[in-house]
Amino acid sequence: MTVDEYAKLAGAELRRAYNSKDRSAVDAKFQEVQTRLLANSVSQVEQRRFWALVEAEFFSSQLLLEKQEGSALHRLMQDIEARLEARKRGDTG
Q: Is 43 helix (H, G, I), strand (E, B) or coil?
């Protein structure tokens, strides 16, 4: 599987976890992906490109919408967005 294919898969799995309102699945996916990238010695530059592809895939299809600010789903989306932005900047924390 290429890095681009894996990014699409990861983005789709994040979207599925979000739409299922499953925070633990979101957390697990971020951890799994980061571990896999490190295990395969993917460069920082390539990791930033990878996370941009994950983000594009995540937002490429239907997502649940939450109009109530402060709801668990709203906070989950904010968390996902913040984590993707941090990783695109190269912060793997």
A: coil
